[in-house]
Amino acid sequence: MTEGARMVTVTINKSQYRAEEGETMLSVAMRNGIDIPHLCYEEVLDPYGACRLCMVDHVTCGKRTMMTACTMRAKEGLEIMTDTPEIVKYRSTLFELYLSQAPKSDVIKEMAARYGVTKTRFLKKIVHDDPLGGKCILCGLCVRVCDEIMGGSAIGFINRGPSTVVNTPFFDENPACLGCGTCAKVCPTHAIEIEDLGDTRIMKSWSGTRIALQLCPDCGQYFAPKEMLEEILSLPDPGIVEELKPLCPACRAKVIAKGMFKATFQGSVHHG
Amino acid sequence: MAGSAMPIQTPGDLVKARESGLLKLKPGRPRIAVGLSTCGIAVGGERLIERLKEIITAGGHDIDLVRVGCIGFCKEEPIVNITIPGRPLVILHRVSPDDAEAIVKSVLNGSVLEEKALCKVSSWDHITGSVIYGTGFDTIPDYHDITFFGRQTKVILRDAGFINPEDIDEYIAVGGYQAFVSAITSRSPDEVIDIVKQSDLRGRGGAGFPAGLKWEITRKAKGHLKYIVCNADEGDPGAYMNRNEMESDPHMLIEGLLIGAYAIGTPDALIYIRAEYPLAIERLKKAIGQAREYGLVGENILGTGFSCDIQLATGAGAFVCGESTALAASIEGKTGRPRPRPPRLTDSGVWGRPTDLNNVETFCNVPVILARGAEWYRGIGAKGNTGTKVFSLVGKVENVGMVEVPLGTTLRTIVSEIGDGGAGGKAVKAVQTGGPSGGCIPARLFDTPVDFEHLNEAGSMMGSGGIVVMDEDTDMVDIARYFINFATSESCGKCVPCREGLKHTLLILNKIVAGKGSSADLAMLESLSDTIQMTSLCGLGQTAPNPVLTTLKYFREEYEALIKEGT
Amino acid sequence: MDDTTFHEIISRYPSPSGRILGILRDIQIQEGYIPRDLLNRVSEELNEPVSRLYSLITFYSFFSLHPVGEHMITVCMGTPCHVKGAEKILGTLQSLLGLPGESSDGKYSETTEDDMFTVEIARCFGACSMAPVIHVDNDLYGYVTPDQIPDILSRYGWKGTGIGKPQKGSDL
User: Fold this and answer.
1) Is A138 an 8 Å CB contact of chain B?
2) Which CATH fold topology does B11-150 show?
3) Architecture of C71-154 per CATH?
4) Interface pTM (ipTM) of the complex?
5) Which residues of C make CB contacts under 8 Å with A?
């Protein structure tokens, strides 16, 4: 909760809840254990509105309008309903479209099944040698996280409409890629394939872009993208003792636990 | 010929400019004006004016030769106006370079080539001014006797085809910039907004939102840096009203935009114009340049302290960029993928600033509203649907061209009277209004008044003003398929219902058209259309199923005829 | 493209509004397409990641990643043109020039093997009164019928034989 934020009362499915003014209704619902399906929402990013699954009924003056919960901002007296017959009907058709769009995704199959949709009337999309394994739903999370949070801007949307795909420019290896793997972490259908082969990380989904990995002199494991690591370590904050720099997090932790170095730096140590 | 580059520093200067401009429109010598907008040029207008120039120069004749815009009777192009001092202006049609010699000869004799004459104009009401030409040529029909012209009400298109769009003096001659100068020297921004509100002017881009109200909201929005933007992305296939407005009378748009900028309180005006309109882009650039030379655009206009500059931003071939948030993204150098609303554009638009976005034609209405008053404007059209609307009447209709009528005029008047019915005498079956976002209206409903509400009720919408006529030979299922194909290829691809839903809608329609469809397919079409309409992120997706829904509603028998028997 | 021209294009757009699309548009008009190396130069000059520029070029129909043929034929497929038989015009062109019937990425732009002709689709030129309409280079042809096509093509050096790939997937 943000300090100093105004609190308001909202109504979801006839029950009342407290929320911060301006908080997204999707976030309010999730916090209170109310299930609203969603695929393209990520707390740190602005609401995107692409998946259309979080649609709810906005109730005002006795009328109901469908709106996405991720773009609805909490204000005093706001009322929504999450499972009206209309919402269920449209959600069903949407899930059918998802099943035909990403026929290889188990995540989609499970999610659809949870909402009562186990098959689709629509033609399934078959792409030979799909770098995203028939699982991509074009939610845009990988693109946005790479562009807006990690600053790599290595991948983007290509083409438009039904021909849209995500990949690197010219479908070539892109040196702008940091190799951080955040795209794979954030992908809701686990469509992005990354393989660490010896001293190289291969972004298999991103046209085979290769990133050199850093070797830990202590344990002999390759543990992080070299260049990215160098950049982070060169930042003054957290300042890190020179001798600890080339070590992987696990080895670093061991060394510190042995008491060989005082904790002279600010910042936290993540135990791998 | 460019303007005489005399800066306007006082309202008195404008009056002087008007007088000298009138001497160009009605010189003391004959004037030959060739209609040269995209249509005119396409049918050889450039060769015609070249030929005329050759003849006039070779003979050393004292004749003014100018290029003018398009008078809107596109099927009669190339069109040439002849002005002989003291005589009515005569409109010649279907003129070819071979007629050039005869034309010049007749003009030197104080007459016109009668066999090429369509009609004559004794005096013309430019709404913000008027021009009296003269009397005579009794054997030539009067302009108002030509049904295509006579049944129209020219307000927006009042100057088109008469004035030289590349000369600011001719715009000023007929009263141009009077409203703007008067507004910034004697009215407050709030008064200007009030007048526009009272006129009940509604957005001419299709949504019909009250323009004055939008200006007021933007004026009151938080933040002191704002944008006023003109949507000149006219993407509906078959609609070219805005193109004609910009090519034939660019200063009219500029004046409206300047007044809007003053009302909202911003020095930053932008015109977002589609790449496919190179002539309009060129004429607008020229016009802005001339307005700048005259001090009507730029810093401290007329010493009032109000500054405004107008920038052009071009599109790059994406229909979706006509949608307001996509348009804003495009200006910012991004792909045209719409953003969810809230926030509305008036709170956060281009570069995050409060932005007012209006269609070309909405702005074009502003100078006349301010010049003649809100009450005068309300006297045209119907209650809640005031003013005129320009339509492009195209397709299988006899008279193809620009049609301007008061809102509330019926489809029958437009198609059967002004349009003179189906081309080649065929029976008209339906019209499509509102472009890819609209729907098909069958002939039996042609008594429907053309206004925002009635068209919505029929399942279609006004859109930007394209009216495509279809006749007895048109296959309505094919039309539905055409529009879905269009929407699919123009979809930005961001949201699932539009991207995936339209893709499958097209697959099903292809199946049906190929004779391989079943009744289950019809049911799927309806269910898909409903979902796409209700769950899409932006207007493109939300309205894309309209052609399918209206053809299913009014022409279901055509679908059923294609369905395999017994399925 | 030489440095002078490149910087001249950049300098035409001092203000950020409409800048990126404007620059790319001018390059497209100048070169006939967007060469990869120019894209990289624009990326450096404007400090825009290449992936974003590539997104723009593949999103907007105006841009092409491949050089086009000597003569550009654009067939209007707007509603009035469609209603007056534009599909047959396109089909005739495809058949005479040996071009495929479908596009893989939604943007139809096909060039004959001898690089003489490129055929593209446009959504509307706004010359609806003369439907169906095609553009060949800077010339506009209206009221076009399929049997006029061979004659129109020969004005631009077409020799009458469809030199090119055999048609695939067309449903004429």
Assistant:
1) yes
2) Glutaredoxin (3.40.30)
3) 3-Layer(aba) Sandwich (3.40)
4) 0.92
5) 36, 49-55, 58-59, 104-107
